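can u pls check wat happens w/ S-adenosyl-L-homocysteine
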Amino acid sequence: MCYAIPGKIKEILNRAVLVDYFGEERRVLNEFDNLAVGDYVYAQGGYVIRKVAVAEAEDVLAAWRELFFELREVDLRLSGGVDFRREKTDPALGRILDRAMEGKTIGKEELLELLRREDPSELDIIFRAANFLRQKHLRNACCVHGILEISNHCSEDCAYCGISTRPRGVSRYRMTPEEIVQAAMEAVETYGFKALVLQSGENPGYSFRELANIIRTIKEKAPALIFVSFGEVGLDGLEELFAAGARGLLLRFETSSPELYAGLHSKKELETRLAHLRRAYEIGYLIATGSLVGLPGQTKEDLANDIVLARELHAEMFSFGPFLPVPGTSLAGYPRVREIDMLKVIAAARLADPENGKILVTTAFETLSPDARRKGLLAGANSMMLNVTPVHYRKDYTIYPNRAHEKDDIADQIEGAIALLKDLGRAPTDLGI
Ligand code: SAH
């Protein structure tokens, strides 16, 4: 099983290498000093993550070659042909979609206009336009990252969250460093993941030295692109984790509205979270961020602002997911957001960043709607995460109830994901930037 295709180095540039994938060239950053032209490497998120032995690379490539081009054909067929004029699109909507097709920046007002649409035939055109743009700029690559939930201990009181200090009866766990490394090695060595997200509640009780050691050990024993998602670790903490080898930060700002944010977090300010995201970008992290969709009191205008903010924060990966009310919390009684509203956010994010963004179909969206992955991938998304947390811990990572795939072992999740990707003509690869 493989979640990235090995590429062949064609040229060594300064801090980067030029890598060839079946005739397509990509520039990826290189942190190794033992690479030469002709070597094969795996790259993820724009970084070389490891060198691959020639025989191994050629085996994988042989298995992929034919399928790679077949999948592309399927994707092209499913994503082609959006003709607004022939389809009698409302002129205001047509203008927005035209601008996106011409590569012009879609601003807040235009995003709002998209999010306000309700007519099913118009929504269908918006989703198809988003899917077309995804194919045009990013082809059929789909990131499949693994998420490892290392602890559900948390010091914060976020009103929406099922592992915050508010809900009662949460059974808390903290994986030991050995268990974390072991689970990461299984994900990388046994299952072929090339990118892992390490996530936990905030201040779960590991020292920075422990976290840094964990990251270093994983990179040594099971090279992968590592994202950290431990909440607000402080600006110095961000530096330390980067120095240890983390290269991505998954930190949602949750909402771009300072008022909404203040109502949901008693101890925190939106500005502190944003300062982390800005500093992380300066340090060199790949940024994965976004917001909760359907929060009590959230308006469509807030959501348009969320998308613009994610873009301003240089999101490499857009992570928007539905708010799912947690029983026993003050927000338990709020209705769930509609599936169509989630799809609109995904499509609007794609129109806002057609050329670069990896847009996630989140597990929360899958929990909301059983067909989320397929529909999301056909509305502009090109990324998903599989849960590689040991199953006996997963049931306690109750950020919201009845999480999709909570009991599925890794092999089953992979099988399900690959079957869907094949059906849609997507290749589970990340060919770098
Ligand atoms: N402590 C980390 C990780 C938090 S859990 C941090 O602060 O970033 C990861 C994400 O789960 C959160 O960012 C939040 O957006 C999401 N989440 C929390 N509660 C949720 C709920 N009830 N429904 C849907 N998503 C939720």
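The CA atoms of residues 78 and 200 lie 37 Å apart.
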